[in-house]
Amino acid sequence: MKLYNAKDIEFKPYGRVIDGYDFSELISVLKTSTPCPDNGTVYVTSDEKLERLDAAKVLGANIYGRMPIQIGYCNGHNTKLNALEYHRDSEVNIAADDVILLLAKKEEINDGYSLDTSKVKAFLIPAGTAVEIYATSLHYAPCHVKDGGFRVAVVLPRGTNEALNTKTEILFPEDKLLTHVNKWLIAHPDGGCPEGSFIGLTGKNIDTATDIN
After folding, report:
1. Is 130 helix (H, G, I), strand (E, B) or coil?
2. pTM greater than the 0.90 cutoff
3. 27: helix, strand or coil
4. 113: closest CA among 162, 178, 67, 164?
5. Are strands 178-180 and 83-86 parallel, antiparallel or unpaired?
6. pLDDT band for position 213 (cuts 50, 70, 90)
7. Do the beta carbons of residue 6 and residue 127 sit within 8 Å?
8. What is the C-alpha to C-alpha distance for residues 132 and 62, in angstroms, rounded to an integer?
9. Does residue 131 contact residue 93 with C-beta atoms inside 8 Å?
10. Tens digits of per-residue pLDDT, 177-208?
11. Residues 13 and 42 sit within 8 Å (Cβ to Cβ)
């Protein structure tokens, strides 16, 4: 598959590059104060060290229109798609390292909530870049570009990705995708997702180590 850049026109249906903000302090804290596993990834929904930075005020007031937000991180090593998720709100990713995001569009989901992975596109997010991933874009864990892995700050409305306190009553077909607060997930059968995840991705489980041209 072809690798696009976040600044290419092909990225516009999926999100936008956030220009005009200085996230250098946040990136520095992300690099020096959050762990990067040698194998697999770690995701933390909310990190106090990141949330008390000046960047948090800008993100909450300007990017999210004064909504309560959380700033966490996803760090580690990964090359596979494994699943796709979406939220009811945009997600902001701030990359401390070069990463690849594998993205698809919500309208590409079939009526049975399946999606062929041939619809997925790959985008390079260069180190130091902040991007808004629209609510209509399906995404999952970033993929590393260099052997040292990746660190990415993840900004979302507060409460997103927290555990569900009660079992969801299935009133609509989409309800079977809800795994956490404000998180709908479609898993690949080879993705290693938790038991009970809805298996709806068909086709190849994309591997950026072998499938990027």
Report:
1. strand
2. yes
3. helix
4. 178
5. unpaired
6. confident
7. no
8. 13
9. yes
10. 999 999 999 999 999 999 999 999 999 999 99
11. no
* Phi, psi for 102 (deg, rounded to 5): -100, 120
Task: Give residue-wise pLDDT tens across range 80-138.
Answer: 999 999 999 999 999 999 999 999 999 999 999 999 999 999 999 999 999 999 999 99
- Residue pair 155/91 in contact (Cβ under 8 Å)? The answer is yes
Q: Write down the residue that tokens 């699943």 correspond to.
A: 83
Tokens of 85: 């998720």
Does residue 158 contact residue 69 with C-beta atoms inside 8 Å? yes
Reference 186, options 213, 209, 211, 205; nearest CA is 205
Cβ atoms of residues 201 and 186 within 8 Å: yes
3-state secondary structure of 73: strand
Q: Of 159, 154, 166, 201, give the one whose Cα is nearest residue 182.
A: 159
Query: Do 97 and 150 form a contact (C-beta atoms < 8 A)?
Result: yes
Terminal-to-terminal C-alpha distance of the chain = 6
The residue with tokens 């070069």 is 98
